[in-house]
């Protein structure tokens, strides 16, 4: 009887398919399910179904949304002439948290990564070009992560978008607030120096 | 738009109810669900329902089981005169992994813990007494964890069971194999010395 009871083993296997969940965590979570009242477990299963059924993508910015057009794209108080291009929904949440950006977004759903077999066609770049051509867009801020694939995507986009006659900008690199120069990596420090400004 | 899309927020909240899952992990797992194909997500939900519906408790040893009597209790090759009393299902799995124990189990489903409001009545102690009185039990091995509540439970059980005329034993404390005396805590070391045996 070394193996788990079959329905439990199946539940553990399902938890293991989630990102960042190992064997021990999956087991602990499966036991949490067993220990919770039936109603809570059923509500959990329902929440999974609801999320999959009710969440789609905004037809404008491609962000995940439960509406045809997301609240940001349908808002009249946002500046629709500035589009911030990000990799994923989490990036939108992070920027929204700052409460300073009033433009709209465009979610690529990934970055160009030949290693993973992801080329420009797999990203929502076509939709971005359509928006630039049809809407009155003044500026595109490229806010992909400052990683190898994020930078490559930024480079690709800037070359693609500049001929469209829009201003293309990239978020700044530099030292995070509260950091110590002693511990900063040299690429970051180099970019912080190159990106210096008058005070 | 700082809040999450509602069905997503609800899914994140559900993941947070699982033991050991924090805000960031819950979010990451919810996104895994969104990213997986519909069929996989539906199978996930179904696995939760199946686990809750099909897993009950063995009527003899109280271990979780998908049958009325679990494979261990219904096995004719196990020694039914020796009962190993453990806190939970995970302990059964751990002992089974050793492949040396041939007796049967009794799962208490917790330990006596006045801090958490768990007294002997909330544990499967009544069922253990019934087994000792009705079956031909020779020895009860108390294998609750060597923690404060595990020790308290072991002490309680030994006082309760000794008058029943069965041999009551407790698993040994001592240094784990491969350990270093230098780093052993003094209680463990004390018990290792007190529990010394001839070689």
Can you give a write-up of this model?
- Two copies of one chain form a homodimer.
- By secondary structure, chain A is of the alpha/beta class.
- The first copy, chain A, folds into two domains: 49 residues, Orthogonal Bundle (Helicase, Ruva Protein, domain 3), CATH 1.10.8; 95 residues, Dna Topoisomerase Vi A Subunit, Chain: A, domain 2 (3-Layer(aba) Sandwich).
- In chain A, the strands form two sheets. The first copy, chain A, has a four-stranded parallel beta sheet with strand order 4-3-5-6. The first copy, chain A, has a two-stranded antiparallel sheet with strand order 1-2.
- In chain A, a hairpin with a 6-residue loop joins β1 and β2.
- The first copy, chain A, is globular, with a radius of gyration of 22 Å.
- At the A-B interface, α1, α2, α3, β2 and α4 of A face α1, α2, α3, β2 and α4 of B.
């Amino acid at each position: 009887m070394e193996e788990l009871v079959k329905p439990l083993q199946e539940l553990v296997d399902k938890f293991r398919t989630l990102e960042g969940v190992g064997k021990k965590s999956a087991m602990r979570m499966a036991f949490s399910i067993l220990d919770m009242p039936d109603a809570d477990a059923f509500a959990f299963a329902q929440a999974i179904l609801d999320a999959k059924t009710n969440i789609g993508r905004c037809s404008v910015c491609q962000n995940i949304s439960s509406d045809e057009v997301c609240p940001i794209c349908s808002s009249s108080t946002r500046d629709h002439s500035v589009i911030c291009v990000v990799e994923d929904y989490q990036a939108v949440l992070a920027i929204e948290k700052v409460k300073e950006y009033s433009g709209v977004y465009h979610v690529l759903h990934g970055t160009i990564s030949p290693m993973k077999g992801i080329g420009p066609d797999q990203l929502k770049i076509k939709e971005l070009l359509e928006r630039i051509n049809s809407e009155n867009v003044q500026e595109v801020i490229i806010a992909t992560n400052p990683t190898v694939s994020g930078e490559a995507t930024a480079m690709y986009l800037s070359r693609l978008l500049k001929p469209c006659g829009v201003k293309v900008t990239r978020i700044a690199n530099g030292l995070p607030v509260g950091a110590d120069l002693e511990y900063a990596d040299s690429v970051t420090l180099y970019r912080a120096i190159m990106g210096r400004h008058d005070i």
